[in-house]
Structure formats: structure tokens, C-alpha cells
Amino acid sequence: MLTEEEIKEITTELVHAERKEAASIEALMVVQKRRGWVSDESIRDIASLLDVTPDELDGVATFFNHIYRKPVGRHVIALCDSMVCWSLGYDPLLDLLRKKLGVGFGETTQDNRFTLLPAACLGACDRAPAMLVDEELHGPVTPEMVDGILQKYK
Amino acid sequence: MEKMLLKRVDIPNSADIDVAMKNGAYSTLATAFGMRPVDVVNEVKRANLRGRGGAGFPTGLKWELCSRVPGSLKYLLCNADEGEPGTFKDRFILLQDPHLLIEGMIISGFAIGAERGYIYLRYEYPTALVVLEKAIEQAYAKGYLGKNILGKGVNFDLSVHRGAGAYICGEETALIESLEGKRGQPRIRPPFPASQGAWRKPTVINNVETLSNIPYLIAMGADAYAKIGAETAPGPKLYGVSGMVNKPGVYELPMGTTLRDIIYTHCGGVRGGKKLKAIIPGGASTPILTEQHLDVTMDFNSLVAAGSMLGSGAVMVMDETVNMVNVAYVLVRFFAHESCGKCTPCREGTSWLYQVYKRLMHGEGKLDDIDLLLYICDTVKGKCFCPLGEGAIQPVLSSIKHFRGDYEQWIKSGKSAHV
Ligand SMILES: Cc1cc2nc3c(=O)[nH]c(=O)nc-3n(C[C@H](O)[C@H](O)[C@H](O)COP(=O)(O)O)c2cc1C
Ligand code: SF4
User: Fold this and answer.
1) ipTM more than 0.85?
2) pTM of the full predicted structure?
3) Taking CB atoms and an 8 Å cutoff, what residues of chain A touch B165?
């Protein structure tokens, strides 16, 4: 079930929307912001608020890279794997993150603190290699900086 | 050249409306509203402004097509999806001078007769979302957005629509689908958005940088504007330069500056004094060039003549240490992941290319694989529903064309790389 707060926030988003359906991404994000991910149950609940079928909404949710249909950790690390980041140190950075976190792409640490994901170009090529942790951009990230960055997220 | 688009970005707190206004923001609205909408369109046509999002379509012509469609409900969409790998130029305006974009959108909306605007912003720019929403709120508070702007009877409402991570949503018809709340898969054209776009209403879609040119273009007039930069595509251009250069960043230079000037004069040359090997001039989908192309001027026509494209003006620089097979692999991986899956040549073609490159990177390639790659490209070329598929094969074709030696050497060596 959606919380009252979630319903209120989604309803506010509908004000900007030409049709209810247009708020699909925002509505999914409202839930994801609070719960970290979007469950099947949430898909059904949001769909009924937006007057679309759950399958239609799931079609939208699964289309996008940053709507998570599986549980994630408290923090999501999106490591840019595109051209410029790759050329300036993506490989060693990925190795280091794998070692420190003990997980690979698509996996969550045992303490549920981090999920590691690859990201398409973050638009931070001037700061390569770059990664987005939750909503914060880090770059250029050198191996020496990794501990300090991870420490910021509890 | 005196800076225009980046004039305010270095001023502290430039995203604040009072600071922006002290430095000229919203000062062109009165000029524009003193003209007839059709005159604004004609001014943009005369200035020969071409879209900065990638395709270089003449902005005035697009506006004219839309403004001539009867009906009062029209939309103006700003493409702030900036997903083409290598591209980060719009980010500077979004974060540091949102009021330039908003002013540009108000004037553009007035010109085409649209009273409703949206900025489609990529998920990966969460800070820009906060900045833009604050800027829009400030603009409403000052009466620059909403009803009866400047008491001139002009109405314009604006809000941000966030994406959720999909490169294809930068393609204009996919953007519209996503704006409407659907999966972001492209639509067949015609009808073109100018006649039937968002919610089947006439719609103009322009890139952030294109719209940000408008206040300056109208303030200085088409004649003066057309004197800047290349004759075939005048104006200032934001070049986002990254990779193995000493000073990566966004540089505002006259359209048609040479690659040599950009890389060596403005960006301080190749890092560590190394030798330049390859340049991607306009984002991941534009064909790779070599050091032989350093004197090509960076504008739409010259780059086509040189066998590439200006794209988004995202210059990626690679030095002699880079293995071009690996470059093509990384680019193809991106396209295979981001293909929207709607049409077979692109969906299958990009994933087969990716499979072959994986094999090459694992040291299991054969010399015949070069021909296999070319063959797969041939099954994609000219057969896709939207331009993504065509873009996806460019890194393959151009890397084989200019660096076949890298492929042969890599395959013969039997080495495998970290992937
Ligand atoms: C796959 C694909 C991705 C695109 N991504 C963007 C983008 O992120 N930003 C953009 O402005 N244009 C992008 N475009 C180009 C748009 O379709 C469209 O041409 C452009 O937004 C029009 O604006 P302009 O005329 O001002 O350049 C993309 C095109 C394709 C085919
Ligand atoms: S070319 Fe690719 S991205 Fe474009 S419609 Fe076909 S599958 Fe989708």
C-alpha cells in the first residue's frame, strides 16, 4: 500500500501533468525515493492512481536504467562505464570497488549499504572517471579517494 | 570572441535570478515582445541558427513549420537529455545559467505560439533538477513566467519533466513518448513533431544550447549574429572537450574553430606530451577521426566533408597508448545497452556487435572477425527505425577504417583485456 505521504506527493505531481499518465516517472520516483526500489505491489498501486494498467506502468519502469525493480542497498553507486571514463581509469576503479565492497555489478553488499551499478555516460566527461553515489557526483575519482568517498555514506 | 552563452557562468551565484538579472538576464524579453511573433521567427531564420542537439536542423525553419499549423495549443520542449557519451556542455548552462535557458524558452514560445513548455531533463543531472526548479519558481515570482508576462499579454508556463535513464529519450519522438508517460521508444515520422508532437499537438523541440542562443540572437539582431563563426552555420558553439587533454572542459568558441585550435590552443594539448592518436569530434555516434584531421573546422558541413559529424560538439581525445579495438568495444557496449529494442536491425545488430567485441577483448578473436563486424554493420546500415542504430555502427566502421592495424595486431597477439 502507498503511504498517505506518497499519495499526496504523487497527486501534487499530477498538477504539472497534461494527463495523469504523464506523471509516471515522477510517481515511480516518489516511491523509489522512500523505499529504494519499486515492488510489484507498488506498481499496482501507482498504476491505479494514474489510471493505467499495471503492465503498462511496468513497461515504463523496466525501460529505464534508474528505476529499480529489485531491492537495492541504502546507497546506489552508479559507475560511469562510457568512453571517456573508461579511457581515464574506469577499469582500476571498478576493480578497487569490487574488492572493497566484495560485490560486482548488480549486487548489494551484505550489510545492505551499497549496490554497485554500471552507468551510461553521466555527462561528467570533464571529471572522468566519475561516479554518482545517490544524487552526488564524484570525479575525477582516483583510487586513493575511494575510501574517503565510501565513508560518507553510512 | 567575447563570451555569450557562457558569459554569466563564472559569476558567483549566477543561477540566482537577481544576480542573473544584474548581468542582463531577461533584458531581451521586451525587445522580443515588441516584435511580431513572425518577425522573431524570421530573425532566427535570417541568422541561420542551426540546432545544437546533433542534427543541425535550421531552427527558424522548424519554428516556421510549427507556427503555421493552425490551433492555439502548442508545446515547446527543451531537450536536456544530454545522453550522448562525451557530451556535457548543456550541463554548464543548466547548472550555472538556468535563466538564460528560461529566457530563451519564453521568447521561443512567443515566436511559435506555444504557451506551455517543458524541460526534459536527464535523471543523471539531479543537481540540475534542483537548480532548474528553483530558477523556474523565481521566474514565476518575478512575473517572467505565467500569465500576461511584462503586461504584454504573453503567457508561458514552464516545468521540468525528469527522465529516468535512457539515452534514446534524447531522440525527439522518444522524448515525446516519455513526456507523455510512456516507454521512450521513437515514433514514425511523418507526422513530424512540428505538426503532431506532444499529445498530438504542434510541438517544437530544441536543444538547451540552441534555446540559449535565442536571447543573444534577438538582442544583437540576425545580421550581427550571422557574422560570428562559420558562414554555413553561424554563431557561438559550445565545445565540450574531454579525454586525454591537459585542460578538459567546455569552451565557447566561434562555430568552425579547427580541432587543432581547440585541442592545442585552448585545451593545452595532449596530456603528458603524448602523441595524439584519435579524436571523436561530436559524441559517441560520430565517426572517429585521426591526427590527420586536426585542421578540419568544427562545423556541420566541414565535418561531413571529412567523413564525420559535428553531432553535439563533444570532442573526445585519445593518445597513442589507446587500443582502438577497446575503444570500439566500449562504445558498442553502450549502444547495445541503450538500443530501445523497437526494431530488429538495431536491437540484434548492436548486440551481435557486442558479442563479437567481447570475444575480441577476451583474446578469442580471429582475423575473420573484422569482416564479420563489417558484415553486421551492413545489416544495420540504412535499415533502422531511428538514427540510434546508424550511430551505433559508426565507431565500428571508422575504427576499422583508420585503425585496422590495431585490430590485426590485437587479434594476432592473442592478448585479453580487462572487460
Ligand atoms: C539517439 C538519439 C539521441 C539524441 N540525444 C539528444 C540529446 O540528448 N539532446 C539533444 O538536444 N538532442 C538529442 N538528439 C537529437 C534530437 O532528436 C533532436 O534533433 C534535437 O533535440 C533537436 O534540437 P535542435 O534542433 O535544437 O538541435 C538525439 C538524437 C538521437 C537519434
Ligand atoms: S534504431 Fe534502435 S533505438 Fe532506434 S527505434 Fe530501432 S531499436 Fe530503437
Assistant:
1) yes
2) 0.97
3) 64-67, 119-120
